[in-house]
Task: structure prediction
Amino acid sequence: MRGSPLYHGVLGAIALLGTCVPVVATDQPNPSLSLGTPISRDKHTIPEWDKLGAVTVEGDRVFLTAPGEKGQSGAIWTQNTNSYATWVTELTFRASGGERPGGGLAIWYTAQKEQGPIYGSRDFWDGLGILIDSMGGQGNVRGHLNDGTINYATLPEPQTQAFAQCLLRYRNTGSMVSLRLTVGPRRLEVEVDGRVCFETNKIALPPNYYLGVSAASYDNPDSFELFSFKTTGSGVAQSNPRAKQPTQPDQQPPREQRPDEDEKSAKTMKELSDRLVALQKTAESNVEKINSLSDEVESLHSLKPLLERLDQRLGRIESVVSRTEAQFHGATANMHESTKQNIAAEITRLTEKLDAVDHVIREHTSSLIGTIPDTIHEAVTKGGPSVWAAAFVFIAIQGGLVIGYLIYKKRRADYHPKYL
Result:
C-alpha cells in the first residue's frame, strides 16, 4: 500500500501544504505547543517540552507534584514560543489532597521559563500568569500580569493584585477540571468547566512567549495531575525578531528602502521560518500516522481469509446446534407422553387394589356382626344346666347359713347362767 499512487499523492499534498501555505488557521492542535497522546512513550521525556523540578511523567498524565510529598514543585514548558496572533489553550487537571489545601497551580505565558517560588515558577516574570489556589480560604482562579518588575512573593495580599478572578471548587472533586484560555488582539477570556470565569478587552499580550504549567505543594501537600494541554491558533502576530537575517555579500539593499522596511522584512522571514518548521513537524506527524494506518490496513487484509474460515465453522456449528435442539425437543415430548401413560396405569392398579381391600373388609365386618348373637345364644343353650346348678347350690348355702344363725340366736336367749 505504501507504494500505491494514493499514498504518494497524500504525501505530496502534505508537502505542498508545508511549502506553500505559511499561515494556516486551523482547529488542529499545534504539536509543538501541545501534549501528545500518549504524553510520553518512555515515561521520562515529553516531546517538544522541557521538565523542571519534581515532575513525574506517565503515559496519560503528568504529576507536577506527587501525592503525599510536601515541599515539592514542578513545571513543564514548551520548547518553542507561541507566534500566533489569536490562540486558544485548553487543559485538564485534577487536584487532590487532605482536608486543608496545601499548594497551587499556575498556567503561564511568559518570556522566561525558569523554576522559582511562585508555584514552581520564577518571580519577576514577564507576561501572564493564571493562578489557581485556595488563598483566602476558598478556591479561586486569578489573572496576574507582571512586566518583570513586581516582586510577587513579597506582596502581603497578592490576590488583591489580580486584574480579574472568580471562585472555583477544584480540590477533591473526584473529576477533572477543564480550563480554556482564549487570547487575541485586545481580548483575554478564561473559561472553567464550560462557564466564563472572567474576560477583559484591556489587555494586549506580546507574541513569541513560552507556554507552561507549574505547581507546588506545602505542609499539607496537594497532588496536581495534568492530563491534557493543547494549543490552537491562527494568524502570525507582529513582533520584534530575535536576530536580523544576514545580508548576502553580493546583495545590496534597494536604494530607496528604509530601515523600518528592513526590520519588517526580517520579521516576516522569521515568522515564515517558524511557521514552516511547525508545518514540517505536522507533516512528519501525519506521515507517521499514515504509515501506521497503512500497516493496520495490511494486517486487516491478512486476517480476511481467517475470518472467512471462522465464519464457515460458525455456520456448521449453528446447523449442528439446530439439529440437536430439534432432537432434544422430540425426545422430551416422547418422554413426557410415556411418563403420563405409566403414571395413569399405576394409578389404575392402585385403585383396583384399594377396591379389593375395601370389599374384603366389608365381607368380614358383615360376617362378624351376623354371627355374634348366634354365638352367645348357643353358649347359653349348651351350658344351661351347669349354670342353673351353680345358682341352686349358691342359694342353698345361703339358706343353710341363715337357719344356723337363727338356731344359735334362740339357744343363746334360752340359756340361764347359774350362780354359786
